[in-house]
Amino acid sequence: MSRVPVLEIGGTHVTAAVIDTTSAGPAPLDAVRQPVPADAPADDLLDAIAAVGARVDVPEGAHWGVAIPGPFDYETGIGRFRGIGKFESLHGVDVGAGLLARLPGAPRRISFVNDADAFAMGEYRAGAAAGRSRAVCITLGTGVGSSFLDGGQPVVEGPEVPPGGRAHRLTAHGLPLEEVVSRRAIRSFHATAAALPGDGPHPDVHDIAAAARGGNAPALHTIRHCFGALGRALAPWCERFEPELMVVGGSMAGSWDLVGPAIREGFESWAPGSAPAMVPALRPADAPLIGAAHSTLQGCRGPSGTDLE
Questions:
Q1: Is 222 contained in some domain?
Q2: H/E element holding 249?
Q3: Across the strands, what pairs with 153?
Q4: What distance in Å separates the CA atoms of residue 1 and residue 4, rounded to the nearest whole number?
Q5: 3-state secondary structure of 264
Q6: Using one digit for the tens of pLDDT, what is the confidence trace for 93-139?
């Protein structure tokens, strides 16, 4: 199997693509991205996801790969989205069965994989982490995604990685990490730092980054505080895991000129010289698609992925 159809399900969008996994530089042969109503009822949401998949040229009886964020039971294909502000209607829903019944071409199987792991495996196959024995890959968007790769495979247990291999389970300043560094947390911290009125609307992260580039003090303080906390939280785990490289993707990596130095500063506050080499993702848009396709071929099991048929 060389042409693998995949879905990347994000917080506000779904991307469908067909990946040629035999290419020396894997890339989507056919890709479509469109918004989905993350707060819609379960049937409407599954219909919307499958409708995106119907827009790509999929062979009959295909084996699909699906990259999806947690909390999700990758072993059974059942959603566990509760109290996180997205996909709440899919909590307890058999997403695997729902998509098998809706996707085009009478698919024979679906493999689910964590979206951060898919991103990391894609960067390992065709991006910034290519050829690296060990790499830590981080995605920054509505929250913090992470994957600790050893030989291109996610490490999800053991003393060298956070619980489940997930950085969002760490703490910073005595709080869960995503209460310090996430879209919501960054906007909230900046509103306080800039003494903005409580009723908003408040600047989004890209606006804060633009203000920081212009020398705005509250914006600069926000970037250093939030992303510095990320570096400090990751530092002891990178010390244990000893990655050759850290790759950072997600929408916030578009402000790498600000984000990168702030993360490094956080590492340095833990211990001088502790930061690994850090680079922005080379394939930020299609790495999750490439990773999901290769995860499908490998037939991943456990926390990183599973097969349903």
A1: yes
A2: strand 245-249
A3: 150
A4: 7
A5: helix
A6: 999 999 999 999 899 999 999 999 999 999 999 999 999 999 999 99
